[in-house]
Amino acid sequence: MGQRTALLRGLTLVAAAVLPLSGPTAVQAAQSVATAVAVCGHTNAQPTLQRGSTGDSAIEAQCELDLATKPSRYTPIAADGSFGPATETRVKEFQRCAGLDVDGVLGPRTWAALNTWAAQPHTCATQGASSTAQSTVCGHTDTRPTLRRGANGTEVKELQCRLNLAMEPFHYAPLTIDGDFGGGTESRVIELQSCAGLGSDGVVGPNTWAKLGDWSSRNTYCTPPRPAGYPIDGLDTAKYQHPGGAPIDWKAVRASGVEFATVKATRGTNVTDEYLATDLPAARAAGLAVAPYHFYTGSSPDTGAAQADRFIAAVRATGYTGQRAGDLPPIFDLERMDDGTGRCPTYGTVADTKAWLDRVEAAFGRTPIIYTQKSFLDDCLGSTTAFARYPLQLADYRRSITQPPLPNGSTTWAMWQYTDAALFPGIKAPATADVFNGTQADLDRLANR
To answer: Is the pTM of this model over 0.70?
Structure first.
């Protein structure tokens, strides 16, 4: 697809951080390339720290350790500025997670990795154990005034840091801890309040502070509403998941529990996604069930067959046949125009859609899946029932529903794209996430396994 408008399969990018190098040049690279970052907002002074160290740099280190290890369910340590046994233990745990020498000393290489892990969600190979909750985990202030949009200062830094610790980081991108209570902070407060069952007004009063303090100090946090009863996870990717050309680590994606992926192949009659040739084979090699998808444009009349020909040629060049183990059926992306207007495709018709579907089905011997919404078919194709026999990938981001509404004539759906803001290990930008409507055996059958 193009960058999503109505359905939003393409997403605004987030900056990619560079992981520290390994091997004999790692220390030199960390010293010469990495820029010291005050992720927690205390200080960017990063001297070598070890047991017995004190001061602002120790507070910054402790706070960053909390941010870096909580995604792996480690209970935060006290960010009190005193580098004692608990801090030394956590440094060692972090060094193991990051593949560094384990000595409990915060030198240049550990600082470089810590800056990266604290600013972006990473996970350790092992999970932390629950331990006693700490009251001081960010180290800015113990005061808890009522805060709202427009506030600034130390208390806002404490709020932003606590929000980063309280919200599940693979769906809620960390806030910049800058002490400025702007729209992004307000939105995150509302998301916390929604998770906690509080009044969602974006104002941080006593009840919000209490819940924030509880979740940020323990090895738990708010996870976004996820469709209940559908345990199999998937995601969708395109060039937008490669900010700055960053590759996707498909092994990390698979290790996180993702079972299937849909990868953008083509758009219209003249665009092939530049990452198709690498992403489709790599996702399949990592063990995911994989489908290529085509974004239908409908900007010229009667181009369905020509768009199908481009798609067929592009995915065959990657080795996709539709018949190999791991090959899901091809997907036809049928939605509103991706030019920012939200209009129906100018020349989109049932007949032109069928031309694409028929040609692709004949080429691969698989009934294609259609990605769409009931509202699109109602508004743009006259509530047609012509696609009732096709499996469906339906997009609907509402949290108030238990399953997406079905188009007229259809009786079930195969995939539900339920969010546009999922963050996965191995991907440097948000992606849309899906659940599968069936068992693992059902997915395996659909993927020829």
So the answer is: no
